[in-house]
Amino acid sequence: MSCYVAYFRVSTARQGQSGLGLEAQQAAVLRFLPSDAVRVADFVEVESGRKSARPQLAAAIALAQREGAVLLVAKLDRLARSVAFLATLMESRVRFQAVDLPAADEFTLHILAAVAQKEAAAISSRTRDALAAKKARGAVLGTPANLTPEARAKGLVTRQANAQANVQNR
To answer: What pLDDT, on a 0 to 100 scale, did the predictor assign at position 65?
Structure first.
């Protein structure tokens, strides 16, 4: 009998609210699991895959280590879009499985992580270019509601909490 800790991630709040991306990941994981498998826990996160400081992923990894479980993701890019992050995870000896790559070895995973990292950079570049074009046409970017004193104070609290939680800042 195998034990699994499932991790599901979408990148934007809109994707998280619609639930469609999460539902597709959950369905893929359910189809993959053997009938006698035990899902110890599920973790859901709305965060960019380029960020390595993701609280739900950290909790999922810690639980998988404690329970001797396999960390299970629907797709490799849901786990990480960084070669360095994936290599560090591999070196930590946390067992993980991407449902879309059931037979992938370490070499294949490194290559696919490099492709995912390249795609993340391309997405970022396309977004910057599109926003620059929109701004050049005279559009005002941003949300004026975020400029209120209350919103700024809330942002400061969030940034400070993120800085304190970041392992590299300790």
So the answer is: 92
